[in-house]
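Re: nicotinamide-adenine-dinucleotide structure - here you go.
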Amino acid sequence: MKYSPLQNYINGQFVDSSSARKLAVISPIDGNHLSDVPMSTAKDLDAGVKAAKAAFPGWSKTPIKERVQVFFRYKYLLEKHMKELAELVQEENGKTYGEAVAEIEKSIELTEFATSLPQLVTGEVLEVSRGVECRTEHVPLGVVASIVPFNFPSMVPNWTLPNAIALGNCMILKPSEKVPLSSCRLAQLLKEAGLPDGVFNIVHGDSEIVTAICDHPGIEAVSFVGSTKVAKIVYQRSTSTYKRCLALGGAKNHLMVLPDAIPGMTAQNVAASMSGCAGQRCMAASAMIGVGNVDSIIDKICEEARKIIPGENLGAVISKESQQRIEKYITEAETQGAKILVDGRNAKVKGKENGTYVGPTVIDYVKPGMSVATEEIFGPVISIMRTNTVDEALAIENANPYGNAASVFTQNGGMARYIIDRASAGMIGVNVGVPVPREPFSFGGWNESKFGVGDITGKSSIEFWTKLKKSTTKWNAEAGVNWMS
Ligand code: NAD
């Protein structure tokens, strides 16, 4: 085992879980045993909530301009330790080093946004009647929880922790049990940046601890990022105990390619979108709809896909189980009559025989009802469907239950606008394969890709992590009565 067994992080200290149950953390790159992660109990969570509750009065009363100083220092520490943090992400998640660096860069951008929060939460004041003022203030909620998935071990925790904490909340983070190492390192950096003990806590575990988070009466709000199946469970369970919840789920993102799309650029974007992070991105292109004759573009997509080599410019998928699931989807499509133009099954990387790799896969002549057309595969696979018209393409996109992202590749601005207006997704790209809005714009999908109100990052997250206090005051001494008095 490369690293010592992991501990929870409570009140500024790494402490043992009360549970003996643990899981092995395995590197998808080569199957190495990196560490063990404890499967914590409700008792461990309670200790975290107690620490966070104790820290809340002091932290929430610290002026926001002072609170964000921690995040200026944290941003500097992320920059300073970029290489080490990226290597850790790469090791536990399996993505390429370049992708891991991009993830840390995005974490820095998210932190940068948090440092700008004092500019965005100034509230409002207005004299609403003679001598009578109404004022709004953003007030932190208290103890909040953030439950995160495996695919971005650093970025997704940083979607929530800088904003929630800079806005005055104290947090319990539940990392993915598959990639818990990066979160522990972030805790150390937050401490070094001067975050007071108890403001940020980590409780490791699996579904048992997630259930305990949803049920805990001391937690005011829960943010969740993961699959739709679990997002629904978390949303239902945490709101049934009257918590605020924002739960982001899975995705099936459609790219519509029109015959006037620029072939080279389109092919590069489609191939990069479907294969980046080994297809394990909730913003990855998973289905492509060719409208009219786009055969020459599909040829170029295959050319681009063949340049993507597992173990070189393509990382591993998270586990053996994922590898088998993805390959099963490809085989199923083949038996149902689809044509595998580029086949990523049985990928092997020399010297990394225990790694879990799937090569880039392009499947053509997919029919809308097939499982590769409708289900989230979460691997480097693109399923191509064909239609004669844009409206038929939109009908396929609209019928899918998810709604994270959709993109169109065209040179026709009017057609692009037509698709922006009609695609049923929260984030739309025009000639962009991965249309992630960058700060200060917020991130969030629609339909079964998100449950709850508002988005998880950017300005929209302010509403989620705070409640508004509205005060009405009168300081004039006159005794005159009007309807406001
Ligand atoms: P997951 O749903 O399996 O796990 C997410 C979290 O939930 C983990 O912390 C896990 O421990 C916990 N969990 C798992 N099963 C549970 C259960 N039955 N009850 C309670 N908690 C449970 O997701 P994952 O495999 O880690 O991540 C991949 C998924 O996340 C994909 O579907 C992907 O699209 C999605 N995702 C979505 C977004 C987005 O912005 N919408 C971003 C990243 C990932």
